[in-house]
């Protein structure tokens, strides 16, 4: 099969197109082999390319294999089931079009075939085409009337979070830069703040206090105290968990993680009676079914920033690396 692989960590030039890569094989009874049609490109792919999280992921991989390279990235996909393990339920059928996610420690979907556990795959909702189906699952969440500020409402995670929160009847305030405001408007948020406009800096405080601030803009836990906003919970998708282990090794890195999270919470609890949490992508069938339900009820429509052909994968990585995205970057294998 054809697949994008890396043989060492580094920049986008490390991505190599293998023309005769080995088709992955099912090794557990609960796995399926999927022929990929589209695959999302996420900031985590660009980060893993430069070695982000390598020590912990290598440990996780060694549970099944001791080979680190070549690695294939790509965490979400749509495709067709071509083979089922003996233990896979009738819920999934050969020939069925599905969408799914791949855990970080597994070989990814930027290749023509991927093997995944049945618990991370379901039938693709009919409401989505295959490009849209690769733009939802690598982001997920009684929120009625809760006041939520989304930092980075224009990005891949933020634009989905805004729609999920609105479906849950939350009051949503989204921040983005000025050129993204029309797109964020279409998400149905209640109020938009242009974070690049200095005159709107008061608006963040005026729209609060917030039940929840969701950091989808790479602010990290320091964002909780930086601006003096009032909130009960600050949840960041940019936690230092893997970076601490990369920089300090497994034991000291994990100790630093405990210390970092404790320090952030001591500060916010003492000044705001509020807490800071780290959010992580965890593949789950319940989460996928929940998102499928929102798509079927037309409460969730993925925003697509751009679509690249399979041979253009390095361009797609470059686009994600450059940032300022307006939704998801997707690789379409048939483009
Ligand atoms: N922990 C996990 O498992 C997990 C899972 C998915 C994503 N993530 C992380 O979550 C973050 C968002 O991911 P993503 O895929 O949504 O990235 P993305 O598509 O690049 O979106 C980030 C968005 O934030 C905007 N932005 C940047 N600085 C901002 C600021 N100060 N205030 C408001 N908006 C700002 C950017 O647009 P402009 O710069 O043009 O304003 C962009 O639209 C990334 O840091 C990613 O690594 C973590």
From TrEMBL:
Keyword set includes Transferase: no
Family matches, as Pfam families: ADH_N, ADH_zinc_N_2
UniProt keywords, alphabetically: Mitochondrion, Oxidoreductase, Transit peptide
Primary location class: mitochondrion
Domain Enoyl reductase (ER): 10-331
Source taxon at top rank: Eukaryota
Name of the protein this chain belongs to: Enoyl reductase (ER) domain-containing protein
Cellular component per GO, a single term: mitochondrion
């Amino acid at each position: 099969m054809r697949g994008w692989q890396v043989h060492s960590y580094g920049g986008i030039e490390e991505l190599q197109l293998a023309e005769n890569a080995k088709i992955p094989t099912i090794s557990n009874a609960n796995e399926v082999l999927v022929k990929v049609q589209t695959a999302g490109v996420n900031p985590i792919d660009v980060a893993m390319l430069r070695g982000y999280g390598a020590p912990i992921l290598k440990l996780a991989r060694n549970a099944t294999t001791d080979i680190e390279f070549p690695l294939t990235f790509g965490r979400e996909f749509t495709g067709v089931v071509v083979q089922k393990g003996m233990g896979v339920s009738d819920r999934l059928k050969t020939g069925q079009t599905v969408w799914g996610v791949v855990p970080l420690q597994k070989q990814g979907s930027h290749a023509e075939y991927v093997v995944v556990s049945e618990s991370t795959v379901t039938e693709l909702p009919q409401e989505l085409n295959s490009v849209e189906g690769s733009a939802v699952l690598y982001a997920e969440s009684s929120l009625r009337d809760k006041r939520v500020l989304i930092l980075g409402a224009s990005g891949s995670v933020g634009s989905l979070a805004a729609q999920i929160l609105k479906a849950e009847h939350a009051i949503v305030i989204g921040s983005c830069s000025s050129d993204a405001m029309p797109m964020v408007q279409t998400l149905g948020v209640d109020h938009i703040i242009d974070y690049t406009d200095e005159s709107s800096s008061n608006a963040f405080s005026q729209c609060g206090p917030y039940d929840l601030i969701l950091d989808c803009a790479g602010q990290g836990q320091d964002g909780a105290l930086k601006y003096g906003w009032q909130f009960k919970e600050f949840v960041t998708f940019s936690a230092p968990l893997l970076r601490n282990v990369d920089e300090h090794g497994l034991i000291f890195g994990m100790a630093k993680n405990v210390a970092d999270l404790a320090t952030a919470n001591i500060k916010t609890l003492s000044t705001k009676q509020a807490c800071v949490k780290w959010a992580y992508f965890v593949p789950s069938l319940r989460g996928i079914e929940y998102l499928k339900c929102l798509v079927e009820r037309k409460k969730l429509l993925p925003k697509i920033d751009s679509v690249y052909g399979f041979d253009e994968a390095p361009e797609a990585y470059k686009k994600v690396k450059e940032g300022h995205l307006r939704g998801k970057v997707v690789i379409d294998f048939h483009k």
